[in-house]
Amino acid sequence: MKIKLITCGGTIDCENIDENNVYSFKESYIPKMLKQSRCNADIEIKFLMAKDSLLMDEKDRQRVLEECKKSKEDRIIITHGTDTMVETAKTLGNEIKDKTIVLLGAMVPYNQKNSDALFNLGSGISAVQTLSKGVYIAMNGKIFDWDNVMKNKKLERFETIKDKN
Fold it and tell me: How far is it, in rounded angstroms, from Cα 5 to Cα 92?
């Protein structure tokens, strides 16, 4: 099973966050992360953009959507900034029904101590191979449906909006 991994930037891939909260990007850490984790999954990486998700707009979300639509792979991972990850998931969830898409990111950059990046990437790789068709967010050991998730900025975590039981 071939997996497409689309990079969009965000904290997971940023080189530095300065004192004004401006993100800088040098090169994607994703290849290094895959090598470090000894990942054996068949993954093709598409470097789409490197942006702080707060700077992503509807045009950027449409780029992500079009990339997913044109992908011959039906298993897709998207690395994305956490601040607007839910908005991108909604854009995809409303349009794509025939693929399994997992968005993930990190609260702490990969290149910093105590980062959650590698764990989230591994979770996303496992999730995309086992979940049914749909759009999901994989963060910090949990999987969320695209239409039932929010980022709790105060607690710096993702949460289910409503219990479906």
Answer: 15
Is-above-0.90 flag for pTM?
yes
Residue type, 145: D
Q: Is 135 helix (H, G, I), strand (E, B) or coil?
A: strand
Q: Under a CB-based contact definition with an 8 Å cutoff, are residues 61 and 81 in contact?
A: no
Question: DSSP character for 97?
Answer: -
The Cα 149–Cα 158 span in angstroms is 7
Order of strands across the sheet that contains 142-145? 42-51, 2-9, 75-79, 100-104, 134-139, 142-145
3-state secondary structure of 115: coil
Top pLDDT among 14 and 22 is at 14
Domains observed in the chain: 2-160 (3.40.50.1170)
Q: Round to whole Å and give the CA distance between 118 and 132.
A: 23
